[in-house]
Amino acid sequence: RNNVGQKLLKIPMFMGILYLVLIGPVVLSLAKVLNNGDKAPVFALDSVQGPKVDLAQHIGSEVIVVGLFHICEPCMEQAMEMETLLQSVKGKKVWVVGINTSGDSKSAVMEYLNTFPRKVSFSYLVDPARTVEGLFSIKATPIVYIIDRQGTIRFKGSSVPAQILEKEVLKLLS
What we know:
Structural class: alpha/beta
Helix content: 25-40%
Number of helices: 6
Radius of gyration: 20 Å
Order of helices and strands: HHEEEHEHEHEEH
Distance between the termini: 77 Å
Largest sheet: 7 strands, mixed
Strand content: 15-25%
Shape: globular
């Protein structure tokens, strides 16, 4: 009798594994990858500089540039390009935000930011639950999204030089 109970318990476990192997990859591949023309998902996350930042508060009044990063050398370089962009569009309605999407702690992100060649002036957010990574279907970083005043993604790119970002932002401001 005990042997029958053990066999019965193995059936649901086998079915679960079978589901993950056969169906799981199909479900994951159906996740929406965001592209130009899609509505940007909204989120609110804590900033390493202090207060919580809510993307929805900026939609409608500013062009938004969102950089999604892990702790990596190319991500640091992209953050520096975004800093250069901010300087070139100073005084215009542009909001830049960087987000650590790898689930790192605030202290780990602060330590990483302290290794940058210069301090970032834009809000840098932490996402310990990796919510934004899922919302934006992030497959690799760094990645940059430029979002217009209506909340629509107008540009998406990886490792984008400041000059290209500036050109794309100025198109939306004109």
